[in-house]
Amino acid sequence: MRPTLQPGDGLLAVRCGAPKPGQVRVFADPRRSTRYLVKRVGAVRHSEHGTFFEAVSDNADAPGVTDSRVFGWIPAARSYRVLWSVRAGR
């Protein structure tokens, strides 16, 4: 999520509200459930199965980036909205 977030930054995230484009959300990596990812919400879609969002990277061309282009859309019910961040070292 560089440049928005840097390694070591702290986040306060809560499970609340529907995702909206531009929000930053936290969710378990769909490929490795022991790891959490922080991504920005792109598009949002609703279906009979629930609400899903496209997880996009702020720096999509960086080496090793993984987002919805790799793992698909994320169920909103399994995500947390980032409300506040603290820059590391402050």
From TrEMBL:
One of its GO terms (molecular function) is serine-type endopeptidase activity. GO terms for biological process: signal peptide processing. InterPro entries: LexA/Signal_pep-like_sf (IPR036286), Peptidase_S26 (IPR019533). It comes from the Bacteria. This is S26 family signal peptidase.
